[in-house]
Every structure is written in C-alpha cells, then in structure tokens.
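Q: Hi! First time doing this. I have a protein sequence and I read that you can turn it into a structure. Is that right? Here it is:
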Amino acid sequence: TELKNCTEMQDISEKIRTEIGRGRLCIRDDRDLYADVPLRNQMLKLLFSYSTPWLRLGLETLFGETIQPNDPKYDSPNKLSDGGKIPVGPAANRMNQALRNFIVSRVLSDKVVLS
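A: Yes, that's right. Below is the predicted 3D structure, encoded as structure tokens:
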C-alpha cells in the first residue's frame, strides 16, 4: 500500500491515464476484445506474464482499489475459456484467481474500459 501511494507511483499512474485519454494507449479499433474470446485469452496470458506482486500493484494503482484474495467473489477457477490454465503455484493460487477474476470483470468485460 505504501508503494502504491508513493509520489512516483502516483506520477506513473497519472502519465498512463493521460496517454489513455489522448488515445495513444488503447486497443486498436479493428479488435473487439469484448467478443473475441481467443484475443481475451491472449490478453490474460500476456498480463499473467508479469509476476503476481507487480501485476497486482499495477492493477491496484490504475483502478485505485485493493484486490483481496480472500473475497468470495474471487473464488472462480483459473481456467481460460480455451481450456488452458494460468500457471499458478500453491502459494499464489488464491491471489492469481483474484487477479484473474478482477481482470476478466474489470478489464476484459467492462464496456467503458473497452471503448
């Protein structure tokens, strides 16, 4: 939480928001991330190529909220729709499930984010 609220992270978050607002950081118009299941799976795999703590920190910073692994709404299986699995170890399993659910519901399914 301290790292998320430090001045440097706030500056980075503001720069990312500015780039998104200017249209320089966006999903191409010819891609429909909301409907294209293979593309959604690729995005999940890409995001999960980051280490769990850094992915969590990035999402929490951008969305301004804390992702809790013990929240019942994050108790979904860690499978991709193509049958593949997001790699998880025993210790990271609940946090990876929480991050996956957060990404699917807040990033890959949110029409405001996708527009």
